[in-house]
Amino acid sequence: MLVSGLYAGIGGFELGLERSGHQTLLMSEKDSRALAVIRHRFPNVLVDTDVTQLKALPEGTEVVTAGFPCQNLSMAGDKSGLRGDKSQVIYSLFRLLKARRVPWVVIENVYFMLHLGGGAAMRRILEQLEALDYRWAYRVVDSRAFGLAQRRRRVFIVASQSDDPRDVLLSDDAPNRSWPGADLIHPIAFYWTEGRSGHGITADAVPPLKAGSGLGIPSPPAVLLPDGRVATPTIETVEQLQGFPARWTSALRDRKSKRHRWRLVGNAVSVPVAEWIGRRLEEPGQYDSNEDEPLTNDDRWPTAAWCMDGARMSANVSEHPVHRRRGRLSAFATKRWPDLSSRALSGFVRRAREGRLRYPAGFLEALEANL
To answer: Is 307 a catalytic residue?
Structure first.
């Protein structure tokens, strides 16, 4: 199929869809550094620099992707929802779809969108799709299911005017996946910028990669390694944890490039998830809805749901569509990873000792041994 990618970032959607056999016509992105990456990696694709000024989608577009900005929808953001100056650009998607109906629409954003303001943003997006006569299905998907050593839960919405989106997004399921508990024998990743109200501790994988702090300062996760050292992954490792080839963002070479490479990778769509969706667009499965239940306006948004011909239903599927070999942080070469600074480490330990959160046995003592 022919794809137009809106809010393209560094091309996670587009790379995944191209790997599954589709072709990208257009990539629209406003960030100048993200533009440098996609012009480097997608030299033959038409590039647009402002979706709010885009008059029409290219003729022949069969799939529109929209991994729109999450800054106003995430737990770490200002929580202003679709009224926020970043996330409100999603309305450009609906304007373009109204002008030229496209067979398939694929949208991605943060899991917290289901809960923020009682799920108001999610409700608004789905109502807009319904007003344009789209059937839809959505699902929370964890990137770990695809062999990435990253715990990353994101909402994916697939919509179609004539086909069944459930057969694309819901027909695959690998429930009852188990993940290892945290111990000192394997790497333990955590966010050193937290400590009191959260820590993101993840065993042999990293917590959800993010763009950075509110000041734009990179905040990569720290990792307690089995040898007792506390390190931070390199940018090349983090690119791979999102499913990109290492050095995917190497087109950025200015003195601030490291900071911005972290931000762009943290904002990206996990490539293997996009590839899986692309393969199901090409060859849909067959979804069995016999165990699904009606979804009313008073219900909270479940982790998966669908709407066909006006009937909204909660879907009985897990967050793990496929069963790939588990990605392991311990499989990476960690000797060249830089140490976390003593200042950053001591700050985390102090906040952790002051707070009331639980930590794995021996974890804080192992961190303090580095001080």
So the answer is: no
Residue pLDDT, tens place only, 256-298: 788 889 999 999 999 999 999 999 999 999 999 999 999 988 7
HEC letters along the chain: CEEEEECCCCCHHHHHHHHCCCEEEEEECCCHHHHHHHHHHCCCCEEECCHHHCCCCCCCCCEEEECCCCCCCCCCCCCCHHHCCCHHHHHHHHHHHHHCCCCEEEEEEEHHHHCHHHCHHHHHHHHHHHHCCCEEEEEEEEHHHHCCCECCEEEEEEEECCCCCHHHHCCCCCCCCCCCCCCCCCCEEECCCCCCCCCCCEECCECCCCCCCCCCCCCCCEEECCCCCEECCCHHHHHHHCCCCCCCCCCCCCCCHHHHHHHHHHCCCCHHHHHHHHHHHHCCCCCCCCCCEECCCCCCCCCEEEEECCEEEECCCCCCCCCCCCCCHHHCCCCCCCECCHHHHHHHHHHHHHCCCCCCCCHHHHHHHCC
Of 1, 17, 70, 145, which one is the catalytic site residue? 70
Give tens-digit pLDDT for 43-74: 999 999 999 999 999 999 999 999 988 877 77
